[in-house]
Automatic annotation (TrEMBL):
<feature type="domain" description="PpiC">
    <location>
        <begin position="188"/>
        <end position="288"/>
    </location>
</feature>
<dbReference type="InterPro" id="IPR046357">
    <property type="entry name" value="PPIase_dom_sf"/>
</dbReference>
<protein>
    <submittedName>
        <fullName>Peptidylprolyl isomerase</fullName>
        <ecNumber>5.2.1.8</ecNumber>
    </submittedName>
</protein>
<dbReference type="InterPro" id="IPR027304">
    <property type="entry name" value="Trigger_fact/SurA_dom_sf"/>
</dbReference>
<dbReference type="GO" id="GO:0003755">
    <property type="term" value="F:peptidyl-prolyl cis-trans isomerase activity"/>
</dbReference>
<feature type="signal peptide">
    <location>
        <begin position="1"/>
        <end position="28"/>
    </location>
</feature>
<keyword id="KW-0697">Rotamase</keyword>
<dbReference type="InterPro" id="IPR000297">
    <property type="entry name" value="PPIase_PpiC"/>
</dbReference>
<keyword id="KW-0732">Signal</keyword>
<dbReference type="Pfam" id="PF13624">
    <property type="entry name" value="SurA_N_3"/>
</dbReference>
<keyword id="KW-0413">Isomerase</keyword>
<dbReference type="InterPro" id="IPR050280">
    <property type="entry name" value="OMP_Chaperone_SurA"/>
</dbReference>
<dbReference type="InterPro" id="IPR023058">
    <property type="entry name" value="PPIase_PpiC_CS"/>
</dbReference>
<feature type="domain" description="PpiC">
    <location>
        <begin position="291"/>
        <end position="401"/>
    </location>
</feature>
<dbReference type="Pfam" id="PF00639">
    <property type="entry name" value="Rotamase"/>
</dbReference>
Amino acid sequence: MQLLLKRLPTLAILALLSLLAVPHTSQAQLGISRPRGQELVDGIIVKVDNQIVLRSEVENIYGQELARAQGKPLPPDLKCKILQSLVLNRLMLARAEVDSVTVTDQRVNSELDRRMAYFVQQIGSEKKLEEMYNKPLRALKEDLRSQVRDQLVQQEMQEKIAGKTAVTPREVKEYFEKVPKDSVPYFSTEVEVGQIVIPAQVNDAAKQAAIAKLNELRARILAGEKFEPLAKEFSQDPGSAVEGGYLGFFKRGELVPPYEAAARKLEPGQLSPVVESQFGFHLIQLIERKGESYSTRHILLKPATGTTDVSASATKLARIRRQILSDSISFAKAAKEYSDDKVSSANGGLLANRQDGGSRLPLDKLDPAIFFTIDTMKVGHITPPLPYRTDDGKDAMRILYLKSNIPPHQANLTDDYQKISQAALAQKKSRALDEWYDKNRNTVYLEVAPEYDSCKVLTASTTE
């Protein structure tokens, strides 16, 4: 299985992580079946123990690559590379069963919630998303559940196989020197942009209303009403509400600390007082304990945010901005201390390039809201507080900082070391996966349909 990242940067892990990355709102990426009249003629083309690869999987990924190419010719062996990548993923799943590599329900649920929140934000509302697929949100999540679990397991296996792989400066230099001169990429204008995000604070009246409602429901349950019907009617956690609030079994450290601390103090059947977490307010009932694991059900209420709360966030950001401009604190330190966006705050507030993990972003690929804001900014400037909506749909305010503006240039080791290093690392990880594949392909039952014999999935891979 030859290096897949070298010619097609996203292909080697496309089948593994296509639904883990921030997606476009297409049916193929959402993982939901096509409308009637658009079904592919399907069938099993590869078996790897109990795992299978369908013809439609290859065709769907090929279609996505075709769309990205925008009329440019694709490599003639692209379908074989896609198939090889899918077979590698299925082999990882098969070996994960043998090696007892698993992921928790909490992690799967969190990933499903993240994806649904993103799709809702992109499409406009839960109702529009449900109308688009003619299914309730909970059914869409269930359609994705097995795919998400498999992909997270594959991610764990890939980390186990190649996670500790690293490259030295010498290896990076050797990698770059092997790139033909006429193939050295030309980078368009790139920028480094930082942000500090502060979410709208919960309106105190709305907060008290949620607490009062949960206390009312608690009194009704203590008076004899069943927990489950009330959870179905009132809980704002769509994933568990349909199950009467049931969350399932979790171990220590798998749920947010306030929830876990309250749940672990309860006896089976007992109700908690109202508990506040980052998700809202909970009424919790312990169901049972099994060793270190415990199961609960809950009713979640999320107070609405008022406009005065956004103003309070803007006031706080304006104060932080003045401190940065007066050199009382650096932007990076302020982001780490105050920003609610944990991903960027861990990087000194700088937004990450999803392709290589670096902080330099192609100007022509920026989110329009950022592009039109920084287009007239000078390097070093910071915007006043601006309205913002987070990936999970919450109202917030943010300030943006233009750290640098890198003009168009031919790739070189001085200016583009991080990008070149990432490419060299990707190649080395791909080789590690190839070697693992060669070592483990004979440990499973592997059968390939005759029509794909030319892809040589059953033969040893070759690494450069």
